[in-house]
């Protein structure tokens, strides 16, 4: 197992800058998830670690060796692809062992590793089948098997679960967590699905337009997003954003929008004053909103219930006030009627504010 | 008494009549295409100098023409020449064109698109334009009346490069990435991944090439000046005489020359079907 260091790496395709000055240290034994929408450069970054692309500038270090010009086969890595990339004309056994045979691994070692992997991944009965005779989940397990038998320093995974149906995907997440624990492997995992990052990652790195936005533990990113983009990307349903100005009322500071007013929590006043900006995006996660009966209390926003989506244990309530839409995530015991007036109270501890122009967090 | 009820016309009657016409038309077309073949077969089984052969000879066939053609005639040498030329040309073209197709489909290099257009544009040059220069070249190289003269010009076959490029483009590029990570070189990927997945495409290209070479007439007629290198089509052209033609001999030779193509069709039918249907491979 090994550390992977990415140092000021850039990648240009013609005039398009796919990866823009990214620096990232991936620690030995870490499960790092590269997260972002399609086209954000995460797959390009992964392919550069794999050696399938060469960085335009910057260094990639695996262990203590700069690998920029080292071919993939000599990097001691294994990769799992989104479409599995199993060789259609070879049976499962050949697919799994080909890499070992090409690396001249002794036959007894190949057999041991194949046996171990096929027991663990329940492939024993499938070894003589070709990929087209397998289901998606089975193909996925073969692809995992192919990477596991290599016993690489680093596992690279490019959206390996995105072609599976929802239920299987959740099961495979657990399998991957176990794989990580069992091999204490360094895993770099690319996905656009924030819930995969949330459930599996020891750290997540969020990218946008080739630029690394934030790299931290998923919960830390969730609780303290570096900017509005990260705040929106992490969390489902996504954070509510309300455009507001900071106004002074007597000795109090208020977030004032077109149709609402929310007091600035006392412990955030210093940050707001230090930021020197009056125009902000006020951010509040759906679960940081409480629903109350509108009884003329202060510090709440009066809204109208628009759509109700019960999720079982909790319920998502989509509300309207003025031009704004806000979704609240509340316990399922709370059952307002569509069209009913409610009061929304934002948890002051869990309020976020982002500069309107830079979109960076103010605290 | 209820009287005669109004029985509606059978709902399928219109369709049945349409079907009858369809099958009649199809049968007619079938007869028209099968007729010459039957006539060819009938003539070849009768020793005769006449073109007018009653179909009844099919009930008392004579193998005399076949005996003559195979044992007292240079036909056997033409057959061997055709087989050698078509086989070698096919094998070399399959190898060269799949390699070139792989490069054009997957490799990034300067001038790739212009080079490919240039290659395709050679298709627009008519054979008649290149015939003389190619012959002069072959003559200068002392290759006239040799296998090389028949094979070498045939290798410049842009259609094959185009076909293989199109086919290889349908193979997911992740397979090559996987191969690279498994430790294959470029040639390793070509032999272990690309080529096995190209078999349907190779079968189609191979068949086209073999067929083209097997039936090539003009160039072999010019460059194969003796029975030493003469192939079947120009050979057949030597059978009709100035005053009379042994049609039995000519048809027996024609039938014999069709047999290898039929065998190839039968053997590669499975791959051909896949290749003609666009050469899809399963992804992953």
Textual characterization of the structure:
The complex is a heterodimer of chains A (363) and B (284). Chain A is α+β, with helices and mostly antiparallel strands and 363 residues long. Chain A is 25% helix and 35% strand. Chain A has helices spanning 42-50, 92-102, 107-120, 136-148, 166-183, 194-200, 218-223, 228-233, 269-275; strands at 4-13, 16-26, 31-35, 57-62, 65-66, 77-80, 154-158, 186-191, 203-208, 211-216, 240-249, 252-256, 261-263, 279-284, 289-292, 301-310, 314-321, 324-331, 341-346, 351-355. In chain A, the strands form four sheets. In chain A, strands 6-7-8-3-9-10 form a six-stranded mixed β-sheet, with helices on both faces. In chain A, a hairpin with a 2-residue loop joins strand 4 and strand 5. In chain A, helix 2 (92-102) runs parallel beside helix 4. The model of chain A has no long low-confidence stretch (mean pLDDT 92). Chain B has one domain (67-276): Orthogonal Bundle (MetI-like fold). Chain B is built from 13 helices and no strands. Chain B has helices at 13-44, 64-71, 75-106, 112-121, 127-140, 147-155, 158-169, 173-182, 186-197, 199-215, 218-223, 232-236, 247-276. Chain B starts with 12 loop residues before the first helix and ends in an 8-residue tail after the last helix. The A-B interface holds A 47, 50-52, 71-73, 77-79, 81-89, 98-99, 102-103, 131-132, 139, 146 and B 172, 174-175, 177-184, 188, 192-193, 196-197, 281-284.
């Amino acid at each position: 197992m090994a550390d992977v260091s990415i140092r000021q790496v850039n990648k240009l395709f013609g005039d398009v800058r796919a990866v823009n000055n990214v620096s990232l240290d991936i620690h030995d034994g870490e499960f790092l998830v590269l997260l972002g929408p399609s086209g954000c450069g995460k797959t390009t970054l992964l392919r550069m670690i794999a050696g399938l692309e060469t960085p335009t500038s910057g260094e990639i270090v695996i262990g203590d060796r700069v690998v920029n010009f080292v071919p993939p086969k000599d990097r001691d890595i294994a990769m799992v692809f989104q479409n599995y990339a199993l060789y259609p004309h070879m049976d499962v056994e050949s697919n799994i062992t080909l890499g070992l045979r090409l690396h001249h691994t002794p036959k007894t070692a190949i057999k041991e590793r194949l046996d171990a992997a096929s027991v663990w991944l329940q492939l024993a009965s499938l070894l003589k089948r070709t990929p087209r005779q397998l289901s998606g989940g089975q193909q996925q397990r073969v692809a995992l098997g192919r990477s596991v038998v290599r016993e690489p320093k680093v596992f690279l995974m490019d959206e390996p679960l995105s072609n599976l149906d929802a239920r299987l995907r959740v099961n495979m997440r657990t399998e991957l967590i176990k794989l990580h624990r069992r091999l204490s492997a360094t895993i770099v995992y690319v996905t656009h699905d924030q819930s995969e990052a949330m459930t599996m990652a020891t750290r997540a790195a969020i990218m946008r337009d080739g630029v690394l936005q934030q790299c931290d533990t998923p919960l830390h990113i969730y609780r303290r997003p570096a900017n509005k983009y990260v705040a929106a990307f992490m969390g489902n349903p996504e954070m509510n954003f309300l455009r507001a100005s900071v106004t002074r009322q007597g000795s109090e500071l208020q977030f004032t929008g077109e149709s609402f007013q929310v007091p600035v929590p006392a412990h955030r006043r210093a940050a707001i004053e230090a930021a020197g900006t009056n125009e902000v995006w006020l951010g509040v996660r759906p679960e940081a909103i409480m629903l109350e009966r509108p009884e003329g209390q202060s510090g709440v926003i009066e809204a109208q219930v628009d759509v109700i989506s019960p999720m079982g244990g909790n319920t998502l309530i989509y509300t309207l006030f003025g031009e704004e839409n806000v979704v609240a995530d509340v316990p399922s015991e709370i059952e307002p009627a569509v069209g009913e007036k409610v009061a929304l109270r934002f948890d002051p501890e869990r309020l976020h504010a982002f500069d309107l122009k830079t979109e960076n967090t103010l605290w | 008494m209820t009287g005669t009820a109004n029985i509606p016309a059978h709902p399928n009657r219109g369709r049945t009549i349409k079907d009858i016409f369809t099958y009649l038309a199809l049968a007619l077309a079938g007869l028209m295409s099968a007729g010459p073949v039957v006539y060819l077969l009938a003539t070849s089984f009768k020793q005769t100098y006449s073109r007018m052969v009653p179909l009844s000879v099919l009930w008392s066939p004579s193998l005399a023409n076949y005996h003559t053609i195979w044992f007292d005639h240079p036909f056997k040498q033409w057959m061997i020449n055709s087989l050698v030329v078509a086989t070698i040309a096919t094998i070399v073209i399959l190898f060269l064109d799949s390699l070139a197709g792989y490069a054009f489909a997957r490799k990034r290099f300067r001038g790739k698109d212009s080079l490919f257009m240039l290659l395709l544009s050679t298709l627009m040059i008519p054979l008649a334009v290149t015939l003389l220069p190619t012959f002069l070249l072959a003559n200068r190289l002392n290759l006239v009346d040799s296998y090389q003269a028949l094979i070498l010009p045939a290798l410049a076959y842009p259609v094959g490069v185009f076909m293989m490029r199109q086919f290889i483009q349908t193979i997911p590029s992740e397979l090559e990435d996987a191969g690279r990570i498994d430790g294959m070189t470029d040639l390793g990927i070509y032999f272990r991944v690309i080529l096995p997945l190209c078999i349907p495409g190779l079968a189609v290209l191979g068949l086209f090439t073999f067929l083209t070479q097997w039936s090539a007439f003009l160039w072999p007629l010019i460059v194969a000046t003796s029975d030493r290198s003469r192939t079947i089509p120009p050979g057949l052209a030597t059978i009709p005489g100035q005053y009379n033609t042994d049609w039995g001999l000519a048809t027996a030779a024609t039938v014999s020359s069709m047999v290898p193509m039929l065998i190839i069709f039968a053997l590669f039918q499975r791959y051909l079907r896949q290749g003609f249907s666009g050469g899809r491979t399963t992804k992953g």
